[in-house]
């Protein structure tokens, strides 16, 4: 069976703080390498990467830290890493259904007492999910009660309206994306880079339905530093926000050839900000997009369907239905996995996994690095 095939985690990109990322030599890893995580051989089921350290969660409830923060702890259901603190979810005291949310200083090595702790009591089972099934909450920072989440900035515990029926929540540098049980997307927070997708650069204090995607059922959401991605149930990719490094796979000024200059700017019909650069050969202006405030449909090469997406600070990674990995955006530390430090404003397949006869199952981006879980291809 596919679920029984041998799998492994791989990593590439920034490792300047000693994060377990492939070989971990120097400050960067330019191509995928098998992960040499603390406690090698453990059954890692989730990776949560912050800028200077990474948390690995195992199927047995162990959390291992690597990078500027070190340490380990057992009895954990989930963990979420940020520079402000490490959030750990543990079973609550007693035999009840509750869990205990703990926030630790990353440098504490998970010893002593947490910075703060709070008991989280799950809602009663609901039958309002798709097809009448129970709504399932996603991983941290969304809490298992599905009506609150944890933030790296005060207030740390933030309630959500129960009517949102959240099943996944992603946090960018200044904004939040929420996917509800019906496949609708809500966004709020800072909007100065168009990352909210409402067609403006205004902030939104409360979750607001993304009207441009109404009627389309989404399966995945991902928040980058200042850009956003959704994957629909049918495998389409929608992307919006800041395009400074090509992270939207749209033409970007930072990647044009030397000698090209800005000659003017305006707006596309869809409201995206367009600036024009003069090409050297014939002088004809060519547009580049700095900010895309509405969701834009993105086609992968060969019409591939997407099933998962993750965003770094300024790069994007997508897994296809056939198990291929595509990356694009900022590549200074090798976080795109193409054996170099080139940045790209178009999706490019990471050939390592194809060459090694591996199918990618999931991807998790840190701000400047990328972690991938892949399994051996089925033998025909």
Automatic annotation (TrEMBL):
This is RCC1 domain-containing protein 1 isoform X2. Pfam families: RCC1. It comes from Vicugna pacos (Alpaca). RCC repeats lie at residues 183-234, 235-322, 323-376. SUPFAM superfamilies: RCC1/BLIP-II. InterPro entries: RCC1/BLIP-II (IPR009091), RCC1_domain-containing (IPR052830), Reg_chr_condens (IPR000408). PANTHER family: RCC1 DOMAIN-CONTAINING PROTEIN 1.
């Amino acid at each position: 069976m596919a679920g029984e095939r041998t799998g492994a985690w791989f990593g590439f990109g920034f490792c300047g703080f000693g994060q377990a990322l492939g070989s971990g030599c120097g400050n960067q890893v330019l191509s995928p390498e098998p992960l040499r995580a603390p406690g090698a051989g453990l059954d890692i089921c989730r990776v949560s990467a912050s800028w200077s350290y990474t948390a690995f969660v195992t199927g047995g409830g162990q959390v291992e830290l690597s990078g500027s923060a070190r340490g380990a702890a057992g009895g954990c259901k989930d963990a979420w890493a940020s520079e402000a603190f490490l959030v750990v979810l543990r079973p609550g005291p007693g035999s009840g259904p509750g869990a205990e949310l703990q926030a630790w200083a990353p440098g504490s090595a998970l010893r002593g007492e947490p910075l703060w702790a709070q008991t989280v009591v799950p809602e009663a089972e609901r039958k309002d999910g798709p097809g009448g099934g129970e709504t399932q909450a996603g991983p941290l920072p969304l809490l298992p009660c599905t009506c609150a989440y944890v933030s790296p900035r005060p207030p740390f515990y933030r309630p959500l309206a129960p009517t949102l029926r959240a099943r996944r929540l992603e946090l960018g540098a200044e904004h939040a994306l929420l996917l509800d049980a019906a496949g609708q997307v809500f966004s709020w927070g800072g909007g100065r880079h168009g990352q909210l997708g409402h067609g403006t650069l205004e902030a939104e204090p409360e979750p607001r339905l993304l009207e441009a995607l109404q009627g389309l059922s989404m399966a995945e959401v991902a928040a980058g530093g200042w850009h956003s991605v959704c994957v629909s149930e049918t495998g389409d990719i929608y992307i919006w926000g800041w395009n400074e490094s090509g992270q939207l796979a749209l033409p970007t000024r930072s990647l044009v050839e030397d000698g090209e200059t800005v000659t003017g700017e305006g707006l596309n019909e869809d409201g995206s900000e367009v600036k024009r650069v003069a090409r050297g050969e014939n002088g004809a202006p060519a547009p580049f997009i700095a900010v895309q405030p509405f969701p834009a449909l993105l086609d992968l090469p060969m019409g591939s369907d997407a099933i998962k997406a993750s965003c770094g600070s300024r790069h994007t990674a997508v897994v296809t239905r056939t198990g291929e990995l595509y990356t694009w955006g900022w590549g200074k530390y090798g976080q795109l996995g193409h054996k170099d430090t080139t940045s790209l404003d178009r999706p490019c397949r990471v050939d390592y996994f194809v060459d090694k006869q591996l199918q990618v199952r999931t991807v998790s981006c840190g701000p400047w690095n990328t972690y991938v879980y892949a399994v051996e291809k089925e033998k025909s």
